[in-house]
Amino acid sequence: LSVASVEDPVVMSKIRQNLREKHARHIADLRAYYDSEIQSLKQQLESSHRTASSEELKKINQSLADRDWCNLYVLNRCDQLDAALNEASARIKALENKNNLLEKQVADWRERFCAISNTSKVLQERLEEMRTAHKEKDNTISRLKSRLKELEEAFEKAYKLSDNKNTRLQEENKMFQNLLGEYESLGKEHERVKDTLNTTENKLLDANTEISDLKRTILKLEAQLKQVEHENTLKLRH
Q1: Roughly what angle, to the nearest 10 degrees, separates helices 165-237 and 54-161?
Q2: 3-state SS assignment for residue 67
Q3: pTM for the complete prediction?
Q4: C-alpha span between 125 and 117 (Å, rounded)
Q5: Domain boundaries in the chain?
Q6: Residue 202 and residue 204: Cα distance in Å, rounded?
Q7: Looking at the chain, which terminus has fewer C-beta neighbours within 10 angstroms, N or C?
Q8: Is residue 3 predicted with pLDDT exceeding 50?
Q9: What is the rounded distance in angstroms from the CA atom of residue 194 to the CA atom of residue 138?
Q10: Residue 89 has pLDDT above 80, yes or no
Q11: In sequence order, which residues have a C-beta less than 8 Å from that of residue 155 and are 6 or more positions away?
């Protein structure tokens, strides 16, 4: 038998069933044979009882005793082999149940590992998107700062050169206030993006840690599964 056939539960069940049937037929044949021999000897003993001498009767009795002892020995041996076969079948069944349980645990841990890996991938993509958005916000703030500086320079220049100082001052002040409000709004948005980015990075670190723990658990379960399969193979060979 190949290793794959030995590990197949259906094949093992058929093998055990065939062994039981052969064992039962063998015991039945032995019992029938020895019963036939005993009956034949009894008939011979009855037919020659009146004509045989005492020495011949002793030999016949000894032969019958030897055959009875041999018959009892064979029957006892058959019972022992039957008990050993039942014990081995029970042990194989226990190992198969343990093997199936370990396979289910490994499958469950693999599904959980795949789910966490997918979640980690989604978090990584979201983190990259937030980093890109954060970079765009930084670029916008830089442009607004440059624009604010230009407006401040224009405001100072207009303040010096304008005849209508009050009107130009109010217009520039209004523009400056609007720009300052937009700058503060972008600054708050920038802080919120930073907080969200830090939270996402912490979740990603936790997911990576849990993935590492699951990998170690899966390796341990696979090692236990290999050990059980090895024990099962040794028992089957025995």
Answers
A1: 170
A2: helix
A3: 0.33
A4: 12
A5: 60-190
A6: 5
A7: C
A8: no
A9: 11
A10: no
A11: 172, 176
